[in-house]
What we know:
Layout: H1 2-20, E1 25-28, E2 34-39, E3 43-50, E4 53-59, E5 61-66, E6 69-74, E7 77-81, E8 85-92, E9 99-105, H2 108-121, E10 132-136, H3 139-151, H4 155-160, H5 162-174, H6 179-186, H7 190-204, H8 212-218, H9 223-234, H10 238-256, H11 261-267, H12 273-284, H13 288-296, H14 304-310
Helix pairs in contact: 1-3, 2-5, 3-5, 8-9, 10-11, 10-13, 11-12
Amino acid sequence: MLEQTNSAAQQRMVELLYSLAPNEGYTQSLLEGVRFMRSNRPLRLTPVLYEPSIVIVCQGRKRGYLGSEVYVYDAMHYLVLSVPLPFISETDASPDEPLLAVSIRLNMATVAELVSMVEHGEARSMSSPQCMFSTPLKMSMTNATVRLLEALRSPEEAQVLAPSIVREICYRVLVDEQGGAVRTALAQQGQFGRIAKALNRIHADFAEPLEVGRLASEVGMSTSVFHVHFKAVTQNTPLQYIKSTRLHHARMMMIRDGLPAAAAAMRVGYESPSQFSREFKRFFGRPPGEEVREMKALLTLLPPERIEALAVPH
């Protein structure tokens, strides 16, 4: 009976996303921080940069590669990132069965409040923090996702009901199988918390000069200890992480704002356009112009007005 109920809920999620995400790429929902994802074709190994977020795939499959680890997120598993993180992603999809997913950005103020309530309500052993993990999609999470998608069809319900459903989804992540690890990470405790603070600093000030020694000092670590813990969390050295963050932001500026490569390079802190182009091609596998043309077809954002026009009357 449970399997039938779960199957019906999964099918309902797919039906809702077909209407909420009619075009390929990303579609902004009626609620800030929630976006829909759709891909009608398989996507090769691609460098991506995810914000702290929850990604629930309703149809299709994605794989994330971070160091030697592989994270599968599909109709049976969802993905959680507790820090901003660049990694490699690939997508299984086809025109007959497109990838359909919803991405929920984590509001750290909400999460911090929930963490304190969960820890206060029940003593829990503190697991090792994780910056990224996939975990089985339980019925409670599936039902909450269906209710969120239903609410996001209506401008009024998106405003009144959707925020509380997002809060519920965050709670269910915190009390799930790997909740101890994500609670520890999101509470930013210990060495992980110091690295998380440095990661947030990099993302806030990526266009500014960022010296590794100063970043280490700001979080109360020696440079050598900072290097060790930084790589343990991100699978990258601090310099590699800073470079990948700048390149990802430059790519989005070229796609979203139509900036030429030289202007985007300056915006993210490069002094040499030629150095930027070399590093961009090495990182993404093709020159800036070619990458932008390809990605514009995949990352088209629909404005909320278009979503309102697609809302189904109740």
